[in-house]
Amino acid sequence: MYFFSLFFKKSTLPFVVFITGACVLIVEILAIRILAPYFGNTIFAVSSVISVVLAALSLGYYVGGKLSDTYPRETLFYGIIVVSGASIIFLHLVGALFLPTFGYSLSMVEGPMVSSLLLFFFQSFLLGMLSPFAIKLQTMRQESIGVGSASGVIFFWSTLGSIAGSLSAGFFLIPRLGINTIMIGVGFLLMCLGLIFLFKISIWYKILLVLLLTSFFFYLHRTISLSGPTIQNAVYSQDGLYQRIVIYDGLYSGQGARFLMQDRNPSAAGFLTSDDLVFEYTKYYAAYKIFNPNIQNALMIGGGAYSVPKALLEDAPNVQIDVAEIEPSLFDLARQYFSVPDDTRIHNVVEDGRRLLHDSPKKYDLIFSDAFSSVYSTPSHLTTREFFSLAKSKLSANGVFVANVIGSLSKTPPSLLLSEIKTFKRVFDNSYFFAVRSPHGTDLQNIIFIGYNGTEKIDVASSRVRGNSNPIIAGLSQKEINIGQFDLSLFPLLTDDFSPVEYLTAKEL
């Protein structure tokens, strides 16, 4: 405590750059979340935000250094902080108007870069000006220290602030507060910080100033919203730990239905008046019946609205179901809004599906992977040879692995889907592939991968299969993809070392 007391008596600048450094990282992390509903949580969005912020900081360092040599005034330094805070709030308002109007008209490749330049460059540029400016002021305040020592002190506290901002955003702010609250709060924090040191007034006037700004903050917080596109008939809309979660009512095939949207992806749904599965691809989980009808243990990778676990409970009364879902709130939301029963046979685990597979000592009779909620959000670590090998190792004898994948059956390279098929076949010798819409179409559609951990080859055109009472199973022969028509040697094998999912996805769009 003595060290900190002595330090801040000498200078307030380290404290100031600690706060501004934290704000830079908070804004950077929030920027990725703000863009996600429109462009997906992809490598293009992450790379664009990081590149724009770094470019803005670099230019800010250069301009700030020049400006501090020409006008080495504290009033200018704190004025820049005030303007940076105001610009964060103003550009947040611009984003609230711009993204819902133009976000979907921009591609998922160029869109994040354009939006990042418009919404996050200017405030990052201003914040970048502060470090060289603070170094100049520090050397003027303490003439006994050299430029090197002053630089070390400023960059130490600024970087420490960035670390604190990064950790607080990920572990505290985003899990507890909305993006709106955090972004406007950061803007007002910077404005208060600058104004407190900018004016030579008594402490009571400074407290009054902070109170007035705080009141204005709550007013803006209630009037500005950048929470993704507006959805009519929404019954729930909140930021999740990973994505924006919206639940809304609408129609599907003429029937009333309730939909779950995560960022820009309508990822799950349930009918309002029946327990029938809504999306056609989800019905393919039942294909396990022609391979291993007597399942005891099942794993679902990706819960969503928990419609497949709910259906499986009806199908297999003795089954125990583990569900790996990384979004902590979805299980409770599924029970509240999608009539998922509070059944002890469902064991929900808030964990990444691959990590759960690795850690679990269980062998599963059925693994159903439905983490591919959209072509915009394909988790690369669930596409690789290592993942499929891990899944196979966790199957019981005659166990079945079923995965929903989204892609195009175009024969022209590059193709994420055909790379995945090649990779899957390397692991599962006994594998089957079905196109939910048509095995002859080249449009984007759901493709069902089935890997059987058994030696018996299943003829889906046999009378046993075609005579099944389940229409999905009975129609498998009409949906089966003839893999022999593709030259898989043209497509790369996907591994943990090489899985350019976003690049291949962009080429398919």
Automatic annotation (TrEMBL):
InterPro entries: PABS, SAM-dependent_MTases_sf
PABS domain residues: 202-452
Family annotation (NCBIfam families): MFS_SpdSyn
One GO process term, biological-process aspect: polyamine biosynthetic process
Organism in which the protein naturally occurs: Candidatus Staskawiczbacteria bacterium RIFCSPHIGHO2_02_FULL_42_22
Source lineage: Bacteria, Candidatus Staskawicziibacteriota
Keyword Transferase: yes
Name by which UniProt lists this protein: PABS domain-containing protein
One Gene Ontology molecular-function label: thermospermine synthase activity
